[in-house]
Fold this sequence. Notes:
InterPro entries: HLH_DNA-bd_sf, Spo0E-like, Spo0E-like_phosphatase, Spo0E-like_sf. The chain is mostly helical.
Amino acid sequence: MAREDKMLQMYSDGKAEALLGEILHKRQEMCKLAEQKGYTHKDTIVCSQELDELLNRYQRCLEQKQEDKRPFFTILPTSLAFSK
Length: 84
């Protein structure tokens, strides 16, 4: 299993709070870099991209949680629908 898949599994098991902590930390780091070096500096851009990846992981985690909560009948393919 890939590292990212393991991390996603960990977060989807109820550890989303840890991911939110990482997001907040990375955001603070990015803001500090932007103040010190400017918004277009390479370090600020790299940090922004890392923040984007964390946000994407969190979004996938939320989507997975929503999918896990869907009722069984909404998951069934339409080909299995009952007909008279």
